[in-house]
Design goal:
The complex is a heterodimer of chains A (about 110) and B (about 140). Chain A has about 110 residues and is an alpha/beta fold. Chain A contains four helices and seven strands. By secondary structure, chain B is of the alpha+beta class. In chain B, a hairpin with a 3-residue loop joins strand 2 and strand 3. The chains are: A alpha/beta (about 110), B alpha+beta (about 140). The interface between A and B is medium-sized, with 27 and 30 residues.
Chain lengths: ~110, ~140
C-alpha cells in the first residue's frame, strides 16, 4: 500500500504522508515505502508531516529506522510537525535526534546544506 | 462526566478505533496537548497488548473502561494475553529515553510504549491474576 507521495525538488526527495495517523498499523508500510525511495538513490529527504494528526512510538520507530538507513551519507529533515506530534518527539528525546524545522522551504535548505 | 466501555478484538485497527473514540470523551477542561498525550498513552498500551500480549493473534480480546471522575480520569484495560514482564514494569520510564542522540546506529526503534504511558499518566497500576491482566491508568484533572 502506498502511504506516501514523493516529489523531487533540487535533488531532495520531499515525502508527504497520505495518512493522518502514523501508528502501529501504518508504520511498517510507511517505513518500507520510504526505504524504497532511499534505495532508489535519494539520500536527501524532507519528511513533510503536514496533515499528520497522530504519531505513536511505532511511527517514531519507523522514522528512526529510516534515519539509520541513511547512515552517514544521507540527510533527513522533518517539517510541518504539529504541536501535538512535536510533544512526542520531546517526550522521547527524539527532538535531539531529528532535524525539525517549521516549513518545507526551510527543510529543503537544511537538507541541501 | 463521561464513561465508556469497549470490548474489542485485539487488532491494531481496533486500537485505532478505540483511541479515536475515546478522544471524543476527553474532558473539556484538559488542554489539547494533554488530550493528545492521553490518546497516545492509551494507544501505546493497547498496541503492546496486541503485539506482545497476544502476539498479534486476532482471537484475543481487550476491555477498555473509561471513567471521568471529579478530580481524575481512570482508564482500566483488561486482557488475557501474556502479562507485562515484571522487569519492564519495574524499570524507570526514563530508561527508555536514555540513549545517545548522536549515536545513530544505536538509536532505539521500539520499546517506548510502556515508558510513555508511565510518563503521561500520573498513576499506573498493574496486576496479573489467574491469566487476566489489569492495567489502571489515572490522570489528574485540573479543577
Amino acid at each position: 500500500m502506498e502511504m506516501i507521495d514523493v516529489k523531487s525538488v533540487c535533488e531532495v526527495a520531499i515525502i508527504t504522508l497520505k495518512v493522518k495517523r502514523l501508528d502501529a498499523s501504518a508504520a511498517p508500510a510507511f517505513k518500507q515505502n520510504v526505504l524504497n525511495v532511499i534505495g532508489g538513490g535519494e539520500p536527501r529527504l524532507v519528511l513533510d508531516l503536514d496533515g499528520v494528526e497522530f504519531i505513536d512510538s511505532s511511527g517514531l520507530g519507523a522514522m528512526v529506522g529510516i534515519r539509520k538507513s541513511l547512515g552517514g551519507l544521507g540527510e533527513m529533515t522533518l517539517c510541518n510537525v504539529s504541536g501535538n506530534v512535536l510533544s512526542l518527539f520531546r517526550l522521547t528525546r527524539m527532538d535531539k535526534v531529528f532535524s525539525i524545522v517549521a516549513n518545507r522551504d526551510e527543510a529543503i535548505s537544511k537538507v541541501y546544506g | 462526566m463521561a464513561s465508556a466501555l469497549y470490548v474489542v478484538h485485539a487488532t491494531l485497527d481496533e486500537v485505532a478505533r478505540v483511541t479515536k473514540g475515546l478522544k471524543r470523551l476527553m474532558p473539556v477542561r484538559l488542554l489539547q496537548e494533554d488530550c493528545y498525550a492521553i490518546e497516545l498513552g492509551i494507544a501505546e498500551v493497547l498496541t503492546n497488548i496486541v503485539l506482545h500480549g497476544y502476539k498479534a493473534n486476532e482471537n484475543g480480546y481487550i476491555t477498555v473502561s473509561w471513567k471521568e471522575q471529579m478530580s481524575r480520569l481512570c482508564v482500566e484495560i483488561l486482557d488475557k494475553g501474556l502479562p507485562i514482564p515484571p522487569h519492564l514494569l519495574a524499570r524507570e520510564s526514563s530508561h527508555a529515553f536514555d540513549f545517545d542522540p548522536h549515536d545513530v546506529a544505536r538509536l532505539p526503534e521500539s520499546g517506548f510504549g510502556l515508558a510513555l504511558a508511565k510518563t503521561i499518566f500520573d498513576r499506573v497500576d498493574y496486576e496479573s491474576i489467574n491469566g487476566e491482566n489489569r492495567l489502571c491508568l489515572q490522570k489528574c484533572l485540573p479543577e
